[in-house]
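call fold target=PTS system sucrose-specific IIC component
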Amino acid sequence: MSKHHQTAKELLQALGGSSNIANYTHCMTRLRVTPVNHNRIDEASIKQVKGVVGVVDDDTYQIILGPGVVTKVAEQFGIVLQEDSAAPSQEEASPEDLTSKGADMKSELKKKNNTPFKNFLRKVGSIFIPLIPAFVGAGLIAGIASILANSITAGDLDKDTWQQYVTILNVIKNAIFSYLVIYVGINAAKEFGATSALGGVIGGITLLTGVTEEFPIMNIFTDQPLTAGQGGVIGVLIAVWLLSFLEKFLRRFIPDAIDIIVTPTIALLTVGLLTIFFIMPFAGLISSNLIGGIDWTLERGGIFAGFVLGVAFLPLVMLGLHQVLIPIHIEMINTAGMTILLPILAMSGAGQVGATLALWVRCRKNKSLVTIIKGALPVGILGIGEPLIYGVILPLGRPFITACIGGGIGGAVIGMFGNVGSIAIGPSGLALIPLIAHGLWLKYIVGLLAGYAGGFICTYLFGIPKEAITEGSNNKEVPETKAKTEVAPTAEIEGTNYTISESAFILPFDGYVMPLEDVPDAVFSSKMMGDGFAIEPTNNTLVSPINGEVVSIFPTKHAIGLKTDEGLEILIHVGIETVALKGQGFTCLVEDGQKIKQGTPLLKLELDYIKENAKSIITPVIFTNSPKETKVELNKTGYFNQGTNNIFTF
């Protein structure tokens, strides 16, 4: 009997035998088991099994065994599971029962580990964020059409010649804005677990196609005619959410043979009637009061309201909570033709641009910090603020606060002007200028300049940390790159010949570097597999960080093992719980045993698909054969480009 067979046998016994296993699988580092009854698991015995590094009780029960070992143990686990299943047992259960119970258990664990608020934010983002490119493109086209129309009205352009172009541009623009509820219905159905086509139909119902003034549909609460689009996207979200529950309920009872006929008919009729007679009037009331409340606040609050909103938005972006505002922006555009919130909130980006400029001036001797600023500042000016947030101002602390104040100053200026709105949602900064409604872009620019100035002055006077002024005194959170003429430090791992210098390891992705402790997975964050760091990738290609060879590629291609020429072994695990994707979204570009150089492409990713379907895209980079006493210390955190070196020291 092999040692792996013995390990598998002991694990199965401690897991409660074959009758307690609904299904199992394995990834690069762990055996994942879905038990029927968690109470039958003897966790203490599992931890005593030789070769077990640790356990995690999550969506599945995970037994940490490590790269290489887990594949062999999993193979033997299947054998002993079959042997145990064939043995006489007093507790019989069909495979269907086991699978169903396992799925229920997994569902319960998901409920326990995911808060409703986080799930809500994720769903809102998944519904609306894919539509933002269409909003930006259509909004810019609408802006061009408005300029032409105004020129025709002023007599600067000939109406007979140019009116047809205005009409054509408006047709293109209306493709998204006129039928937005249908797109939202489709995306919401995907997120809520309903049929996408039915979600689109529910969205289309709110357009009241076919209703005329002669034959209106009356609002049962006010006895006034319903108007097309009443309730907007808020009503569509509510209706599609109800649709998802009804579909799932109906499929419990309707036979498969007639499901395709009966289920959509009943679902559409029921939810359609609810939408017309209850949801549209109710959502319309919510929408009108919400937007009326925002208008009232900005009208009455003016400078003060603008300042508060400008100060508060940057922390919302940092926490990812800004996504909840997307439906509000869209509804304001639907009802008023523009969102007056977005230009005010955009001032937070102006504040951090001003703060970054102050850092550049005061900390110009800090060459590494200036290098980061040079890379992140242009996209920050254009309205993409994350590189500045995570790479510059947030790690330094005080500049983040002064940047928020600068955003408040810009917001106060926009609030003072009043009625400065955007006809579409998109990036802030200079990129928002073409989307400003009614030709008020000059007022928006004044607000931007005020935000730049406020962020610069507050940071220059009060927000410069002493440790950031010169290169040598940086703390570990400030990016640091030593001159190439210096001797590269090396880390020698005690008892081995493993060395790695600052030039021998480069960042394998564009993305945000973070400590291993921040990984949302207990196996990696507790360093069961070894020390290292993590990166949240922003590009689609994983390249080799080292010169060496490929030693293992997991069958689902979500994890890859490398070894340097000196023998240091590295595990790169793309995302968390990505084994469940079964290889979808990953294309392997190398083979086992292949020699590689720094920068050799290893994996091609469908990043959007992985983001949508995996628990997280945060990617741990683990040094698996370094001694336990070895500690990886990050020299850099924040956003960095692929190929950056001097990421860490041992």
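return ok
Residues 256-301 form the longest helix (46 residues). Residues 123 and 191 are 6 Å apart (CA to CA).
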